[in-house]
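Researcher: I'd like a structural prediction for the single chain below. Treat it as a standalone chain; there are no partners to consider.
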Amino acid sequence: MNQRNLKVLLGLLLAGTPAASAQTLLDTSAAISVQNTLNQTGTPALPKVPAVPGTPTPSATPDKPAATTPPVPVTPLTQPQQAQLARARAALNAGQLPQARTLFEGLIAQNYAQPEPHFGLGLTLLALGNLKGAAFEFTQLATLAPDRYEAPYNLGVIATREKRYADALRFYGQAATLAQGKAGPASERQVLEALAAEQTRAGDFAGLSTTLTQVVALEPNDVDAQFRLAQAMTLAGRSAEALPRAYAVLQRQPKRVDAALLVADIYVAQGLADRAARELDAAVGRTGNGADRARLLLRKADVLAASGDTRGAVLAAQAAAHEDSRNAAAFARLGELRVLRGNQPEAAAAYEIAVRLASRNAAYRTALAALRLALGQTAQAGRDAAQAISLKPDPATLSRAQFVRGVAAYRQGQYAQARTALRASGQLTPSAETYLWLGLSAYAMKDYAGAAGALGASVKLDPTPVARQNLASALLAAARYTEAEAVLRGLVSDLPKSGEAWYLLGLAQRAQAREPEARRSLKTAANLGHVAAKGALK
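Model: Treating it as a single chain, here is the predicted structure.
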């Protein structure tokens, strides 16, 4: 599976993960969500009935509280205590938190070994923002009632809130084990979904497959859960096993685009790109929505491009753009594929539409600038690059935009501006090409030492003949004749038919007062047709 499709699949999986929520005395409410991207994870939100925010330090929250003293005998609540517990719960549910805290604390003082007051006080302290106190109460609950899943579950939500994800994963795992077969189906699923969210975050797709298998067993008619299980199995390297599950989802929901994309990804993972393309075509025929058809066709374009069929990929991307004429990504992908086909004018036309539809997308504008530069539209390329830079893009896009702006400025004779832009580009993403143009800009400004430094960096990264010859020219201009001669001797050895290299070698030797050697080099250059060399021999 290629990196583009892996990211899409992960994004879908994260989007499908239901929010985890805190187990409370009275109700459940959201406490964590995982957003639709691999690199973003949601943070728990404070629910209306206290959900679980931050975690204590590991020393304050042992995984399994140690019983250093014999357990306190549990004395049943008296009738007055039961009435007080009911009032405390009512106050908590009504948001009367100070009153709830007082009532729960009073019950703990009267009957410490009873778990319910600890549970209620933990939830109350969470709502009051006393995270350390809440974690202590949940730890006490785990000690007093080790067979109850609510304590590790809420400690898990605390850990998630404080971004202690490894702890959260461990606590949710404990809660899932305790809840299995004991909690009601809704509560058990709640725990499993919280565990699934952390397994997704951790990239534990084998564990996630196991968890979602349990979810599907609890609710076999939940098509979304079946789909998520197929995704997890695919990401865990079990794509062949996931395939019948993905088809089962499509049988229930034939127009489901994400399931069709998953089926295609599975066939790609099996090395069956042609089968994947046919499955996508079939899905396009089942789908009535133009935007959905465009998604399927764009995936087909990716599949075909990865298999080397760039012509078919261009046709698929064109169809996608036709199906959804407001989809900037479709036009950008079409432009990208046309570049692969060597059709720069048509690629630029596609990127122009992408930029028109998504005017604040710096990557699209930078790609358009690069194409215009290649097409000789230098001034417009520079303006496009400047606009892309003003959008404050990511470092990679910024580096490319600065490069285009620098080359465009150089070609327009704006050497100082070119040097500034190219230097900025090289600082972000050092490359031989960037340093080559930076060296040329410095040379044009008669900064020969700066030119030699930049061109030397270019040669180190990629010792092309062009870079070496320009480095030699800069070294000669900087009166560093011995270094220039060393570069040029290597160059004429590799390219004995290069008249320019022999000419420069002759100049380096003449500058060192070695006239006989210089004349031999210049004569070789002249015999290769180098006009300046002929003049230097007179």
